[in-house]
């Protein structure tokens, strides 16, 4: 039975898992879920897809799983995923785990908060945030970007050296988000810019495909 | 070379890893770090212990690792940890991973924010939070507790059935925190109360030992 993947490209962990699935030639059926329309909040979704009422979700036969990092780890055990994406060697795996655990309350929290404040909420409600709110959220975002730059980017092409791993896809999809709210980290962080270019190049055409929706909406907003 | 463990009992992930290390009879040398005094912020700590400048940290020979969840996974691979704490079976492991990934931006974020607002900041600065701030933080905390209760607690004694796992220790150490700031989830959530009793019983005497410092400071504050 083929793996079922429920996703919305507006969601960073959905984009990163989608890119991984495509790059690793993992067979799957894609089921789009419209988060802006609240499809995940229906009783039907809760019963038939996931009690967590969010995406990404996978169904592997009768087994349902949420949380992108736990899905990645499950896929690495159960499917044919090249080792460099999530190495089996214990210390190398621990380095990736360290990043994937660190990012939740740092990059993830602060990129998402800024993205929500400056992009999602105005799109959904038509109400724009106060300058004070944007400025506070941006300050926290810059702290996380500086920490990411200093703690995780070194001399290699990617986070963990010269081979790409899931950490890179996960982090890049996160760091792409603030630009839709008016701040592109490439402007202030040359090392992040160069690393993002490497990740994009290594992940295309799927990187472009996963970000197409966001780019399209951003352009529509710019044109109005 | 024996495992080195850097910790402060004021930190939830330090308490939960300490309890795991003791319950699994993993040999380690304990190195206390005083977070309230800012010992982790020194250049000496940064150079000799961890560039992340926080705890918990382990040194396994020359290998340094932060982030409690990545440390747990590393210990489960490298040390003799009974399988029920973090099962090798793929789907069982995925269920624990799902909880451990979920908790970061839910239980962890909201218990910690409430604990910081109501306990750590007044302790460090002498300044008490506004009622509005406490009320906002409590609302987010209650949402996380309700989600935890409904999504993760079932008919079993523990989160993943009738056997205790690392999820239980990690979650319990988190849910103990708000009471030091004046709100004990046991009051409103009978299922959480009953589950906490089970975890405490299964983890004593180390559960009591890890919470002794917090209980002592809480009593001192109460008595003044």
UniProtKB/TrEMBL annotation, chains A, B:
SUPFAM superfamilies: GST C-terminal domain-like, Thioredoxin-like. One of its GO terms (cellular component) is cytoplasm. Keywords: Cytoplasm, Transferase. It comes from the Eukaryota. GO terms for molecular function: glutathione transferase activity. The keyword Transferase applies. Pfam families: GST_C, GST_N. InterPro entries: Glutathione-S-Trfase_C-like (IPR010987), Glutathione-S-Trfase_C_sf (IPR036282), Glutathione_S-Trfase (IPR040079), Glutathione_S-Trfase_N (IPR004045), GST_C (IPR004046), GST_C_Theta (IPR040077), GST_N_Theta (IPR040075), GST_Theta (IPR051369). The keyword ATP-binding does not apply. Residues 1-83 form the GST N-terminal domain. Transmembrane segments: none annotated. PANTHER family: GH16740P-RELATED (PTHR43917:SF8), PTHR43917. This is Putative glutathione S-transferase theta class member 2. It comes from Leptinotarsa decemlineata. The lineage of its organism: Eukaryota, Metazoa, Ecdysozoa, Arthropoda, Hexapoda.
